[in-house]
Amino acid sequence: MAEKKFEKQQQFEVQDGFEERVIEIARVSKVVKGGRRFRFRVTVVVGDKNGTIGMGVGKANAVPDAMRKASERARKDLRVVNLSSTTIPHESLGKVAGAKVFLKPASAGTGVIAAGGVRAVLEVAGIRDILTKSMGSANVLNVVMATFGALDGLRSPAVEAARRGKRAEELLPFWERRKQHA
Fold this sequence. Notes:
Structural class: alpha+beta
Radius of gyration: 18 Å
Largest sheet: 5 strands, antiparallel
CATH architecture of the largest domain: 2-Layer Sandwich
CATH class of the largest domain: Alpha Beta
Number of helices: 7
Strand content: 35-45%
Helix content: 25-40%
Mean pLDDT: 86
Order of helices and strands: HEEEEHEEEEHEHHHH
Oligomer: single chain
Distance between the termini: 50 Å
């Protein structure tokens, strides 16, 4: 079962410069007078691997229609993420319902330490070195939305330093500070 989900998530296409990843295909139902009415809900993330990402959810009676709707919605919901070379400028926490996602910058060569939907979002954003922790609910849609919330909370080093009342150099990760003093 887990292998099947992993296969579904790995589907991706590159169109107009954006990579598209299917995060989840779920069968959902609505109870009506005559019984249950089944539909499909598809969650898709798109990104240009350079800091621009979007997420879309589509529902339809057939999977291809739901995928098309999700893809269109993801392309309409594009946002820019603040990156610091191959990682993020500072730690960030995103919360949606019961899902929490913690993102922490990592030194070059670490790779993307994340699972499931979080990994897909970070990869299409172009982040290559990051540490993550997903806590609380394992609901895929909420975890992906929490990841987007954490990425939306990222500020440039100068803005974040001013907010914290520190110098921008103090916010640099230790491996960057070590390079400057060497």
